[in-house]
């Protein structure tokens, strides 16, 4: 009975890890990403004044992870733009979210039940990207474990890691913070995921890659869906991190969590994915 | 009779599109580019305090388009610096414009009739760069139409697209604007040119490349000469753009033009190539 | 007798130029580099709040020269991170300097006699990097003399040339200055060294490379040890530079030196390696 279960799990995870991402999952990824762009203060105004800048930002939100990973591996940063269908699909999503009459498309995809499904689908793509990034780096540098972690990390975090420069494109400059100084949950999870996939690639983690993909996807999707549904931005890692940082780096206990909350009043729009839904909608509406 | 005319036009455009750019046209390009650098407020002071920074800025003004295109295609950003004669010629122009006794060289090339000729020659180089950029990208990515447009665009716009970072090199930081948010006429024309040349490369535009080069060069040279002579910065695209943006992106009618003018008082030195000649000269003189 | 001396010198310099840098010299390089990172105001606070950002900055301090040189030559910027033992050693040094109980490691290596030895060893590595950078660029571009100088220069200067962006990672933004506008002694010396090694590679300097390496190392080590011991930041080039800049670029006589000092009161923490030891220690202590 248990063997059967294991066999099934193995088969399921294998099938799951071979599933194509285009177009359904990628579409969800583009929608959620450009939704977060529209939540950014000032982005609607930019879309009116300079459609080119707005389109470019949307492309960074959708393909930032590919751009960064290509840069890290010394390839052309626009390499991914050869996939015309992906770019066209993302451009269509950008157009619908920013310019659809009556804001209809935006209202549909920002409707919570729809959004929860899209968020879950986005995390499927994120996990696959991390795994592919680590694998790609492993192919180029067989023993470059640090490179594998770095490439997997940038593949998972995407535009967040270059948010300072993405904001600069929209005429916004907030040098006092960045995604490395104040990591949001998806960025942290991408780092931990990249480490796990690197350990797996180095045969230090006795688990099949497809199983790891399935497990990590389930963890990410559940976490993000729960966080989105509860408008929360607490991290499931907070407690462990707080203790590990205290022991290793002498950070004050509970500091990680406090640090996360403390700077909020001063610049309340810092992290991209962590604003409460209500505040976001009010801001977006006002901007229109 | 008409066949003869067509034959002649074909021959003329073919000869024109094969004409070498070095040294005459390139020289004009370097002179006009470094002239615009000298118009930038503070650049004369930088040339006194730190010749290395000033030289580097001058190189970015002259070779920014090559640097950006090489970065976009994943090549070495300093690849073009292997052409020692080009670098030496540009360095000579930089030296003469910034350090010539009695400011003699500057006075000669900034003399309006001379400058108009140089500006026209510069546009010849710009068009050729766009065509070469699109062709180069087409060679690397046969169906990468977006990549062709991007590479042609950066080849035509050059330093303008990285003006924030070029200014940073001189200790100036203006994050509230950039060339994508507020496109100047040459940047816009480069974008439209890159799209045209991409369509031609994709066989969607039923016209020979040499004819397109000739036509686009004539348009660019005429526009820029008229704009320079009249100290104007109105764009010939303004009316069409205004309507297209209104229909497609819901921008307020006439907004494109107003947006262009409105921010001027607050930061009057924003766009590199759009200051009135008089104001420029006064500023440059004061700075010396 | 003289022939013998020449032979010995040749042998010594040959042996010296073939000497391995790892681990002793590299260790000294990492220690001194991360020491300078700890002197930076706010870096200790960052190490408590965000160990990842602090580690990344430390890596930039240790491997910035490799990253920049790889970028310049179109390679992967993280190429050097395949050397796991180097990264682990540098990470260990980072951990000991920032988190060692009682600050013991920091106190040992910042103790002046120890530090003077480490500083001398660091200059050995710097010279070797410049020579290797020029050689590497010569291999890729046989007649690209400008590229050789640029690559040698970035190999010698390392993180200093990207200090604006390294500071941004720690949430600090000082756009009004950068290492090109206000070159510190090591950056200037790296430029001159890169020019010398390029001339040697182009057979315009009638001296063996090993002799040049030995001579330049001795000059750099002596200069830096004396400057560190005397807490001085005067440059041995000041007098010559002042005259050359006056003649070539019309800079006011003695201006180079004054320029260097003048902006100090306004932003007293501008250059990384030029603070007086006392001020640094006070600041570092306060920050802890």
From TrEMBL, chains A, B, C:
The keyword S-adenosyl-L-methionine belongs to this UniProt entry's keyword annotation: no
Pfam families according to UniProt: TRIC (PF05197)
Bilayer-crossing regions: 20-39, 51-73, 93-121
Record's subcellular location: Nucleus membrane; Sarcoplasmic reticulum membrane
Any one GO molecular-function label of the UniProt entry: identical protein binding
InterPro entries given in the database record: TRIC_channel
Region ranges (Disordered): 256-288
Gene Ontology terms: cellular component: nuclear membrane; sarcoplasmic reticulum membrane
Topology of this chain in the membrane: Multi-pass membrane protein
Purpose: Intracellular monovalent cation channel required for maintenance of rapid intracellular calcium release. Acts as a potassium counter-ion channel that functions in synchronization with calcium release from intracellular stores. Opened by a change of voltage within the sarcoplasmic reticulum lumen.
Name the UniProt record assigns to this protein: Trimeric intracellular cation channel type A
